[in-house]
Amino acid sequence: METDTLKIQLDVFEGPLDLLLHLIKKDNLDIYEVNISAITTQYLEYLDLMKQLNLDVAGEFLVMASTLMQIKARQLLPSQVPTTEEQGPDPAKELIAKLVEYEKFKQASNFLQQNFDKFKDNFYKQAPVFNQEDKVVNVQLFDLLAAVKRAFARLEERQNADLLKIEEFPIDKKIEKVLAMVTSRPWVLIDDIFMGETKKRGVITCFMAVLELLKINKIYARQDKQNGEIRIYLNQEHKDDDYHKLLEEAEEK
After folding, report:
1. Is the dihedral of CA 49, 47, 220, 245 positive or negative?
2. Do 56 and 62 contact (CB within 8 A), yes or no?
3. With 106 labelled, which of 1, 5, 162, 212 sits at a CA distance of 20 to 30 A?
4. What is the rounded CA–CA span in Å between residue 87 and residue 89?
5. Total Cβ atoms within 10 A of residue 36
6. Measured CA distances, 5 to 149, 232, 235 (Å)
């Protein structure tokens, strides 16, 4: 049988500003005091991880990488003359301003979306009062990628992953593994899904299995706080639906 490579195009793939915010928030950094050099290194590591996972990366991610490298080089090289307005705006300040503005809109969007999903079929005589349960955070792709990075770090294997060969690591087997785990308990931590895998290709296939199941709404992922542990749940609405059929229906749309 001819070998092939899994390639996933994500409709929900967030942009480079999302990745930068993820890197800043996970280390509890102040946006206004970000170390561009450190952030650039981490950003490039994530791009390399996306390449290993064979994810389609939009060109805007590469443009941002170039911008970060430019800012890093500008900060590392000592300037011979003071900066003036004639030299143009400071790219680092411009980037920070974009991040601050983007974060405001992202927070507002997340709040509205979460409460719309939960209360869209409810009608109140008076304004609702939200409690702690309403603050559940929907998981972003970069949080899932962080779990993959942790799984890679646990592996004894130190060489780069080869191409993902279907006959060696069938994605159907990993999908069944994930479903067996979420069916047997109320929820499972994303890190537990990668436990027992001894090869990077095994971790990659588990990651692809999770993405496929999320795509067809067979499972969903949640965090109880920003950058908290990721929990994977079985979607009760589709608990009896065959995932093969759900995948076929998703492909037809």
Report:
1. negative
2. no
3. 212
4. 7
5. 22
6. 20, 26, 28
Label residues 150-185 b or e (16+ Cβ within 10 Å = b): ebbeebeeeeebeebeeeebebeebbebbbebbeee
- How many angstroms separate the Cα of 169 from the Cα of each of 36, 200, 203, 204? 38, 11, 10, 9
d(CA 136, CA 231): 11
Look at residue 236 and give its three-state secondary structure. helix
Q: What one-character DSSP code corresponds to residue 121? A: T
With contact defined as beta carbons under 8 Å apart, do 52 and 117 qualify?
A: no
Specify which of 3-12, 46-55, 61-70 reaches the highest per-range mean pLDDT.
61-70
**Per-residue pLDDT tens over the stretch 237-251:** 888 888 888 888 877
Instruction: Walk across the sheet containing 219-223 and list its strands.
Output: 137-138, 219-223, 231-234, 188-189
What's the 3-state SS for 124-146? CCCCCCCCHHHHCEECCHHHHHH
SS3 content of the chain, % helix, strand, coil (to 5): 60, 5, 35
pTM: 0.58
